[in-house]
Specification:
It is a single chain. The protein has 382 residues and is mainly alpha-helical. The chain has helices at 14-33, 69-87, 94-118, 130-137, 156-177, 181-200, 218-237, 245-261, 269-285, 293-303, 305-325, 332-381, and strands spanning 2-4, 42-44, 47-49, 91-93. The protein has one domain (2-381). It is built from 12 helices and 4 strands, in the order βαββαβαααααααααα. The strands form 2 sheets. A two-stranded antiparallel sheet has the order 1-4. Helix 1 packs antiparallel against helix 2. It is globular. It starts with a strand and ends with a helix.
Length: 382
C-alpha cells in the first residue's frame, strides 16, 4: 500500500508544543495530588462526592481531573501523526511509517523501562515477574489488569499509542479507498459505543477509576485519536472541523461535566473531553498572533514532554519513598513543596538528557548504522 502525499507546509507548529506542555502539566499535577489522601474524590451512590475536599484548597479541585490530559495527548497524537504524513513529499508506506514511529518512541521508552526495572525493589510494584517485563517490552501491558500500571503507571498510554500506530495504515487505506474522514470517525464512534456497552456488562465497569483496561482498549479511544487526525486534515486544507465552535465547546463541556459527576456516564469522560479539547485546538491553532511570553515559556516543556511523561511518575514515587522514610512529610504544605520543587529539580535534567540522547541521538545513530550497513551490503554485492 502506498499513497502519494504532498507537503502543504514544512513549518513547525509551535502551538502544538504549548498544548503538549499543557497536557503534561495536567497529568503531572494530578500525580502529585494523588499522594494526598484528602485530594481524592469518591462516589456516593451515582454522584461524585465533593464533601471531603478541604474548603481552603477548593481552588485546587481542577487538579483532581488532571488525568484528562491524556485525552488531550491522544488528540494531539492523532493530529501530529497525520500532519506529519501530509507534510511528507514521498509516498506513504506502512513499513516506513512503522520504522519511523519505532525510532521516535522506542529508544527512550526502552531505556526508561530498563531503569525502572532495575529500580523496582524501591518502587511500589505489587506484581513483578517475567511477564510484567515482557508485556511492557511488547507494549501489550495495557490489556491486562496485573500489568496495566505495572512497572511505570504512565506507560499504559504508550501501549495504547503504539496500537493506534498499528491501526493508522488501515485508516489511511480506508480514507483513500473506501470511506470519508467523517465516515471513519463515525465508525470509530460506533466501536466506542459498542465496546463501552460490552464492558459495562462486566464487573470491572463498576469500579469507576480514571483509567483501567477497558478504557485503554484501543478501539474504545480510537475515535479520540482519529478526531486529531481529522483536525490535521482540516488544518492543511484550511477548513474547520467544527463550524460552530461556541456550540460545540458548550455542548462538549456540559457533557464532560455531566460524565465526570455521574458514575454511569463516567466511562465517556475521555470522549467528551477529547471533543472539548479538539474544539479548543481548532480555535487555538487558528490564531495568527505571535506566541506570548507564557506560551514561549511552555514551548521547551512541550518539546521534551515525551521524556517528561516517561520519567515523572517513577521520580515522584522514589521521592515519596525517600521522604516518607525520613519523615519529611510533616504537613501537606511541606509535602507539596517537596514534591513540586524536588520533583521538578530531578525531572527536568533527566528529561532533557533523555530527549537529546534517546529521542534525537539514538534514532540518528540507528539510522546512520543502518545506512552504513546497506552501503556495505551493496559494496559486497558488486
Amino acid at each position: 500500500m502506498a499513497l502519494s502525499v504532498e507537503s502543504s507546509s514544512a513549518q513547525h507548529i509551535s502551538r502544538l508544543d504549548v498544548l503538549r506542555a499543557a497536557a503534561f502539566l495536567a497529568v503531572f499535577t494530578f500525580h502529585i495530588s494523588g499522594s494526598f489522601p484528602f485530594f481524592k474524590l469518591t462516589w456516593t451512590g451515582v454522584f461524585l462526592d465533593y464533601s471531603a475536599w478541604p474548603k481552603e484548597t477548593l481552588f485546587l479541585l481542577p487538579v483532581s481531573f488532571g488525568w484528562l490530559g491524556v485525552a488531550l495527548f491522544f488528540v494531539l497524537s492523532g493530529f501530529c501523526i497525520h500532519y506529519s504524513t501530509l507534510r511528507r513529499k514521498t509516498a506513504f508506506t506502512t513499513p516506513d511509517f512503522y520504522w519511523r514511529r519505532f525510532l521516535r518512541i522506542y529508544p527512550a521508552y526502552i531505556v526508561c523501562l530498563i531503569v525502572v526495572t532495575i529500580l523496582s525493589p524501591w518502587l511500589p510494584i505489587r506484581y513483578f515477574n517475567f511477564w510484567q517485563i515482557a508485556s511492557h517490552v511488547l507494549m501489550v501491558h495495557n490489556f491486562f489488569k496485573a500489568t496495566f500500571f505495572g512497572l511505570n503507571g504512565v506507560l499504559w498510554s504508550l501501549g495504547v499509542e503504539t496500537q493506534f500506530y498499528l491501526l493508522y495504515p488501515l485508516l489511511i487505506y480506508l480514507v483513500h479507498r473506501r470511506m470519508s474522514w467523517s465516515q471513519c470517525l463515525v465508525m470509530a464512534l460506533i466501536f466506542n459505543i459498542f465496546f463501552q456497552i460490552y464492558f459495562s456488562l462486566t464487573a470491572e465497569a463498576y469500579a469507576m477509576t480514571p483509567v483501567r483496561t477497558t478504557w485503554s482498549f484501543p478501539l474504545v479511544t480510537w475515535c479520540d485519536w482519529i478526531l486529531g487526525a481529522c483536525l490535521a486534515e482540516a488544518y492543511v486544507k484550511k477548513e474547520p472541523v467544527f463550524r460552530r465552535e461556541g456550540l460545540w465547546l458548550a455542548g462538549s463541556g456540559i457533557m464532560l461535566i455531566i460524565a465526570l459527576n455521574i458514575r454511569t456516564l463516567n466511562v465517556q469522560a475521555y470522549l467528551f473531553s477529547s471533543v472539548f479539547f479538539a474544539v479548543l485546538m481548532q480555535r487555538y491553532l487558528s490564531i495568527q498572533a505571535p506566541l506570548n511570553r507564557i506560551e514561549r515559556g511552555l514551548v521547551p516543556v512541550g518539546l521534551v514532554s515525551y521524556s517528561l511523561y516517561l520519567w515523572h511518575q517513577p521520580i515522584l514515587l522514589l521521592l515519596d519513598e525517600w521522604a516518607s522514610a525520613h519523615h519529611l512529610y510533616t504537613t501537606p504544605l511541606r509535602q507539596a513543596f517537596i514534591e513540586v520543587v524536588a520533583g521538578t529539580a530531578f525531572l527536568a535534567p533527566i528529561a532533557v538528557i533523555s530527549y537529546y540522547l534517546f529521542e534525537i541521538g539514538a534514532p540518528a545513530w540507528i539510522r546512520a548504522a543502518c545506512a552504513k550497513r546497506e552501503l556495505a551490503a551493496v559494496a559486497d554485492a558488486t
